[in-house]
Amino acid sequence: MNVAVLVQQLINGLAMGCIYSLVALGYTFIWNAVGIVNLAQGDFVTMAAFLYAATLSNKLGFGLGLSLLGVAAAMSVFGMGAERVVYSPLKDAHPRAVMLSTLALGILLSNMYIIIWGPYPVTTQGPFGQGVIHFGEVSILKQNLFVIVITGVLLILQWLFFRRTTLGKTMRAVAQDREAATLMGIDTGRTIAITFANSSILAGIAGILLAPLFMVSVDLSMVGQKGFASCVIGGFGSIIGATVGGILLGTIEIFVAGFLSSRYKDAIVFLILIFFLLVRPQGILGKKAGESL
Amino acid sequence: MLVVRDIDVSYGNIRALKGVSLEVQEKEIVCLLGANGAGKTTMMRAITKLVPVQRGAIEFMGQVLNDMSPAQIVRQGISCVPEGRKIFPEMTVLENLEMGAYPQGYTKAEMDQNLEKAFALFPILKERMHQAGGTLSGGQQQMLAIARALMAKPRLLLLDEPSLGLAPLLVERVFEAIQQINKQEGITVLLAEQNARMALRISQKGYVLVNGEITLSGTATMLQNNEEVKKNYLGG
Ligand SMILES: Nc1ncnc2c1ncn2[C@@H]1O[C@H](COP(=O)(O)OP(=O)(O)O)[C@@H](O)[C@H]1O
Ligand SMILES: [Mg+2]
User: Fold this and answer.
1) What is the pLDDT of residues B72-122, one digit of tens each?
2) B54 CB neighbour count, 10 Å cutoff
3) 2.60.120, 1.10.3470, 1.10.1670, 1.10.10: which CATH number matches A3-123+135-279?
């Protein structure tokens, strides 16, 4: 096995991992704010991928910038709507009830794609098509490099948003102590809706990044499960954990596919998930182990 | 300034407050004494609208608060230091204070000015400015909770058991600060306490709450000399 292939695989794994991280962060922010796992997160990704591939890119011919804006706008509205319908009416109920309602939303969405975009998988070129870039013997899909760069930029933007802006800080305050935040005069309902919007935008960007790499179909929602596994590996509720867990999972997965068999890839991911749930439920960096699950 | 008129608050079948009335005059320190479970926290939660009031009225500066949201209450000039302090544990001391200032929407200059005031009151907070709130000691957290509430520039400060879980020396320090806030800033204080001795020492007036009902009220001096209070709250 030569070094070039190793580096190539590492970068492919990193790219996949970046996408898992974005999905995992979507879970994390909602989990921290309201203590529920949004089981429709994977369907949010698929919805955005369809919207981007089938409608914005293929049909309307939008470029990348415009598509990003369009998907972000659509997903933020959708995220706030989802909060109003799925979470808000049940906010005083048991978390399990809320999670069931997110599960129902996911099922509803996966049928909506078929109604809106038809039963056939959609493909799209994306900004780089199958373009490859060469560094000596290493050749890398441009789209994969793009995924890594965009994720990096997005992580920095998220960090700045949560540390530097008043809105970001109020979102953290609500997640850390909702009652104290209420006493500070923060509108917690609105803040939680914005948290859903933010998680939905992250899912949306994950969808845009995935669309050119895979066929866009209902099966894409699998990244929801991968994102969930990333959270468990990194430690549910930990932002750094979600990021690290995602990157780790993406990398392991690509290496398993490359050196063992791509057929066992998903099985191995779920073995890792089960291993963590049994042996280290708090994950690598987590503190509280899913207490209200 | 604050008038609570004959209010009822229930949690399901539990009647936590039964026809409670009290009054706080401007610039006073008034204490609300009572054992664990008497209903002190419920009173604070009723004023700040964290629990709904089933009957009666709460008025502040001539305005009826009944239909206001918690956010509107803070903007009327009522800030609360809740029981157990409720610091944002993963936010820095500075960020905690900024959250306290949220209802005011200060400019940078106003923020700095108010931060300086908070740091003058509790210098330890300046030293710990960039430390996470959750890493502070109990006493420091209590100081942070008070400073955070003051950032909103309240006219009335509600304090729910500020002495809870603090060593005697720290209790002294916190009560000194409460007196200082009252005297220098002219902020009115409603203080809920189990520690009647300390509370009566700095208050002008007091109410005794037993099982959700006011059983006794009067000037602090009167309560300090009352046999009931001596026996039940001042240790004989
Ligand atoms: N969230 C709640 N649900 C049900 N009962 C409560 C709740 N909070 C307080 N209570 C009850 O209301 C009564 C008054 O409690 P509380 O106001 O906390 O008293 P205090 O602050 O004086 O200790 C108690 O009997 C307590 O058990
Ligand atoms: Mg209490």
Assistant:
1) 999 999 999 999 999 999 999 999 999 999 999 999 999 999 999 999 999
2) 12
3) 1.10.3470
Per-residue model confidence (pLDDT) at position A280:
86
Q: Residue B235 phi/psi, 5° resolution?
A: 65, 45
- Tens-place pLDDT, residues A171-197: 999 999 999 999 999 999 999 999 999
Q: Which residues of A touch B71 (CB under 8 A)?
A: 182, 185-187
**Residue B98 touches chain A, beta carbons under 8 Å:** yes
Among positive and negative, which fits the CA dihedral A69, A71, A76, A77?
A: positive
- Whether the CA torsion A28, B144, B194, B165 is positive or negative: it is positive
- List chain A domain ranges: 3-123+135-279
CA distance B175 to chain A (A): 22
Distance B160 CA to ligand 1 centre (A): 13
**Is it the case that residue A293 has pLDDT exceeding 50?**
no
Pocket test for ligand 1, best of B9, B36, B41, B211 (most atoms within 8 A of CB): B41
